[in-house]
Design brief:
Blueprint (H helix, E strand, L loop, with lengths): L2 H4 L1 H7 L12 E8 L2 H11 L9 H6 L9 H5 L9 H5 L3 E11 L8 E13 L3 E11 L5 E12 L6
Length: 162
Amino acid sequence: MSETSKNPAARADEGSHFFEDLRIGQQFPIPSRTMTDALFAAFQLASGDNHPSHYDVEYCRAHGHPGMLAHGFQTLIQTAPGAGTFPFYIGSALLGFLEQSSRFLKPVYVGDTLYSMLEVSDLTPQRTTGVATLRSTVHNQKDELVLEGELKFLIRLRDPRV
């Protein structure tokens, strides 16, 4: 096994693509994930969010929900670019994560399976870099859109306009 194959950072640089290589509509799927009790508990522990809607089934039922509700940010992290192929496609041309916004459209419950996608929606070239805007979406197993948003990244140009 070569040194490069053992090092994730080196592998990320193997296929660097630049800002000019991105296209509007280009998609970067993220593997699906089922929201389990364990993921709920882990997120509650990591976030410190202790509202009973995230850990008390009876509280949720008393408030009209069939089960525990996912934290909004627990749904949001399903759009983490590193869980998919986007940062590996860009490689070392990725200079930074600039901005994130999202709207939570429907509740997510324990047992829901989420399907996330990032899609290039805007490309703004600058002198030496460009800003790539990716639309983020999360659908549940019923194909309902539960989250939509945007992520913006600063990406190196192959041929800077200096």
